[in-house]
What we know:
Blueprint: E1 2-3, H1 6-14, E2 22-29, E3 36-39, E4 46-53, E5 56-60, E6 63-67, E7 71-75, E8 81-85, E9 92-99, H2 103-113, H3 124-139, H4 143-161, H5 165-172, H6 175-187, H7 195-201, H8 206-217, H9 221-239, H10 244-250, H11 256-267, H12 271-279
Antiparallel strand pairs: 1-2, 2-9, 3-8, 4-7, 4-9, 5-6, 5-8
Amino acid sequence: MTVLPDSIKKELKENSICKPFYITDIGFYPNARHHYRTRKKGSKEYIFMYCVEGKGKMKIDDTNIEVLPNSFHIIPKNTPHEYKSDENEPWSIYWLHFSGHSSDALYKRYLEFRSTDGNIAFENNRIKMFNEIFLMYKSEYTVPKLEFANILGLQFISSFIYTTKEFASETTSHTNMVNSVIDFLTANLDKTYKSDEIAKQFNCSPSYLFNLFKKRTGYSLIHFFNLKKIQKACEYLKYTDLSIKEISYKVGIQDPLYFSRTFKKYFGISPKDYRKEQQE
């Protein structure tokens, strides 16, 4: 295990790159028989635990949790808790303490997306990432190394939170359709479609496709379609000598004035000013 001294923790807390998320303690306990910890007042940081073998028990406030292989858990900060490795099948756990001003929001996502048992498929890439973070924390305390270690740390934690069963099943079951719609729209930027015409291409109702698409991308179909048109227009403005009118037609907008208004809506400046900026 490696625990950072308070002086380095203070540096991370004030570092503009690390202060959203930083690790204060990190370690790996293999076959950890007799491992037991209780904190009546909790920890000042969030505690992440990933069990890869064996089992144990955890109690957070008054909630009892059975810790099983390939499960992960995050203990909230300032919350009474205790945990204990099983005597007959002791756990092997990767763990870290983390803090930062985005840690509360990260924990909230964990509560939203995690499955009931916190179970997750084992992936070697996660362990490699953890080991890389651990080695940097163990041997090097230069600012760039610590920054990089904590960027990896956020990626490591996120690889668990954003791929849990409930979140994954919510996205993967409809991924192919949404990707197909995106491919269709991208391939037809020179055309004009209404929502019901797009839905008809995929044999589903407009309301179903609208809700599915917005949930996955954050945009309505037409809003996304227009955004892709304007992004394509940026390419034409930057890399060709086509006139504004010609570019408008090439992205399926027959009214150049409407094209200019739409472009300004997305980028805050007119197509003419955008081209001028790119040439400066």
